[in-house]
Structures are given as C-alpha cells and as structure tokens.
C-alpha cells in the first residue's frame, strides 16, 4: 500500500518544475545598454564564426542559449529537447519570412537575427542563462541514440558514390527528397513561394509537398563546410540529414518515454532496460523501414509526434512555455508531415479542454492558438487545395505493418496505463486522452479508405507508424507496475545494477542484438528477418542501378549540348529510377523530365512508350542507350524530329 501511494505521488506534474524557477522573481533585469551590448555581441559572434570558417558552431550556440533561457526540465537533456522543439516550430514558421527576405538562408543574417531575438527575450523576461546538470540517464539516452544512428549510417559511410546511390535507391522516394532539399537551397526558401524557379529542380507535385524537414535541413546545410557546390555534394549532405532525422526520432521516443515516466524512470538502472527495448525496436523493427525506403519527412514527423505526446502528457511548469511548446510542435508537424496533424491537433484540443483552468491569460492563449492554427494548417491547405493531394489518400499500399505486433504493444501499454497505479496520476490520464485522439484518427482514416476504395491504403499504413510511436512513448507506463524506487544504504552498487543489466541483456538478446537470430522477424519471408539486418547486408540495395546512375552522372553530366540525360534500355524500371536519380544529381529534375516519367504509372520500355516519353519531354536529350532496339528507335527520331536535338550515346553495340 505504501509503495502504491509513493508511486502515485511521484507521478504528479510538479516533477517537471525546474529548481531554479522558484528564484525567478529574484533575477535581476538587464539594463538597455546591456541589451545593446548583447545584440552587438551576437552579431559579432555570427560574423566572426563565418570569417573563421566556423559557421558549424552557430546552430549549437543558438540551441544552448535557447535552453539556458528556459526554466523547465530537471536535467540538461530535458532542457535541450524542449529548446529544440521550440526552435523547430519557430524555424518552420520563420521560413516564410526567410524565403522572401533579401538574404535568403545566408548563415550570418539568420544566426544574427536568432541571437538578437534571444537577447531581447532574455532581457524582457529578466532571465539569466542557466543550465541544469546532466543526469546519468541523459548519458545513457544519448549513447543509445548515437548507437542507433551509427548502426544505420555505417553502410553509407562504407560505400562509394555508386554504393550510396544504390542504398538510396532501396526506396524510390529519396530521389524526390533530394530534389526538394537541393531546390530549397538553390531558390533560397520554400518552393511554394518560388514556384517558377522551383520547376527547374523538382516536378510540380513536390512544390506543395510539406517541406519542413527539407527547409530546416537546407537552413542547417548553410552552416556546413562544402568542398564544392555540386548536386552530388547536396546528395551526400541530405544522406547525413536523413540519418540525423532518424536519430532525432529515436531520441524523441527515448526522451518522451522517460519524460512521461518521471521519477519512476529517473534512475539509470530503471531506465536501462526500457532504453534497450526502445532502441532495439528503432533499429530492428518496422520503423526502420522508413529509413531504408527513404521517408525523411515522415521520420521527422514521427519525432515531433513523440515530443508532442510527451509534453501533452506531462506539461512543463511554466504555463506560457507549455502553450508555446505545444504550438511550436504543431506548427513544425504541419510543415513537416501533416498526415499526423489531425490526430495530434485533436489531442492538443482535448488537452486544452482538460487543462482549461491552468492556461495562461486568455489573450495570450488566444493569440498562440490563432497563430498556431494559421501556420500549422497552411501547408495542409496548400497541399489539399493547390496540390490535389486528397486523391493520394486512396493510393494502394505496397506493404502492410504487423497488426499483431501493434496489438501486443497496445496491450502492454494498457497494462501500465490502466493498472492500479497508472490509472490515477494526472500524467497517465493526459497520456490516455492524447493516445486515444491519435488512435481514433487512425481508425477513422482506415474506415474512410475502406468505404471509398474497399481496402486500407498506403497512408493508413503510414498512420500506423504514428500509432506505434505513441505506444512506444507510453511503454514507460510499465514501471507503474513496479514498486516505487527506494534507496537502501546497505545495498551495493552491483546489487542495484545486476537486475537491470540482466533484464537489458535479455531484451537485447531477444530482439537479435546479440546473435541476430531473433524470433522477432518483421520482414516475413526474408532471410534477414528484420529491417536493420537486411539494411546492413546490402540485400535491399539495387547495386546494379547504383553503378549505372553514378556512371551516368560521372560520364555525361557535362556532355556538350546536353539538356536531359536519359538511360534507355529494355528494363523500364531501370530507365525510370536511374534517369530520375541522375537528373536529381544534375539539378535538372524539373518539368521536362517530369513530363516524361510522371504519368500516373511506370512508363514502359516498348518502342511506342519510349517514343511517346521522348516527345513529351520536348527538350534536347542525351540518350544513353543499352538496347540495340532502342538505339534504332533513337536514330529514327533523330531523322524525323531534328528540332529536339537528340544525341545518341550507344552502349548497346548496335551498328548504325
């Protein structure tokens, strides 16, 4: 009985209050001359870093300064994660201004303005920079995230250009994400604000695609060193951001589970089995398929879902800070992957209703709610009204997530949330409402697809990933079934650590981290059994296509008179994937080549299909041909359609 009462007390929301918040009134306000000095210092630091080639230090500086002005979170990782969520939403919203101001994404003006805003906020609030100490559990969390990122990045790091292209071709979508990222860098902002320029770099269907991940990546890319300005360098950098995005998703899931768990997960030994379980699922389970198939926007959206669920379940102590956090996460989600926005928006509305008596002043609440709604819904409105993306909800699914695994996960979370200890605390009550909001939205989406198409589709399977992340964050509820942690002076460190180490080792072995022969096999019918092992084995990478694309870029990128370079052979999919990837690396993936390949289905390799595709493209073409039949066709087109300037590079061995 005593342990249950103690456990409930540890779950109260007051645990999120920073020890320094009680001294807020005693903090001295800065004088105007100090503010001017801080602003000047911020611009001086940004300028000096640029002149010294140390731009890379500016984004971490902005993050640390932001974290130092917050007064929420018990540990350093808490503070940094909350600051990161605020900055992501701010960057997505501010991108509307950065896309049209004269300096584009130039690093010095952006960093200078960011540091100026932080100086003003610090002065107005009277807060001096202060950071809490890191906890051992913080180190465990960051180390686990780094291990996941290193594991998934290793195949890219070991490969040459052809190998990296092949790995990226494991999923077709990454080609288009390369063009959006590089297009934003080239035009200096969101593509939908530079429609005319954007059509050179991307096909029209991506101009109104949600670009939050791509914009933030392009913004940060300006602070990275570039040995050249080629499309290949842009591709390499996007791969880095793709890995970083998955690391952020993993970190958000781990941090969110620990944040909601509160003091029941505050000790490193209690946290270790949970972090091993979550990390193993992130590197071996179905979420890894998003990384393999190249869905960086969805991955970033899942990171935001995890963060939003966490702060809705356990709000921070500052009411205004909490409202700004929820608003920033919703804005970032709307700009990044708005498939999850209706469900998480509903969760936020439910939270507002449940916490209506603990909200800030009505005027402040209304202003934040209005600006959040306008900004978060803007990309959705552009996609639905201007991009015709409603029809994509009916797209059939090429894969299906395991329903059994999701049900098992839901039952585990329910055991903790609805158990005798988890039923009462406010944290788990708020988590239940947030989880039910998203899960209800997922079920409604599936029902809509069933009614309209007779089956669940591609985006329903995507929405199940959101449900999975919400449940993974809730796995911390299982500790409510354990006795409350009690310190006993007579117990040795080994006695305290041994049970945790054994449980963590058992989880790792069961999920294949030791021998790789786990009974958990989310890839049915595969020799690898799970996505992480399959990724490491390179079995998912079309090596032949990667070599062909790299060769196409290396040999024919600077070919005189080239307009669009095409690979044309007897394999229709090779023609499609290699030509589009080469065009992305050549920064020529816009309207002309899009007219040829994006026709609602895979263009065929017959003479009639190839002829029609070339005529649709309508601009000069360098045709790299590997089929004697198509070589004959190209020579015929050169005679009958001389105005298009079709250049033939015959690798088929056919005689003229």
UniProtKB/TrEMBL annotation:
Provenance organism: Rugosimonospora africana
Keywords: Membrane, Transmembrane, Transmembrane helix
Protein biosynthesis in keyword set: no
Polar residues biased stretches: 1-13
Region (Disordered): 1-27
Name recorded for this polypeptide: Uncharacterized protein
Bilayer-crossing regions: 34-51, 80-100, 106-124, 136-154, 234-256, 268-287, 299-317, 329-354, 366-386, 398-418, 430-448, 469-486, 492-514
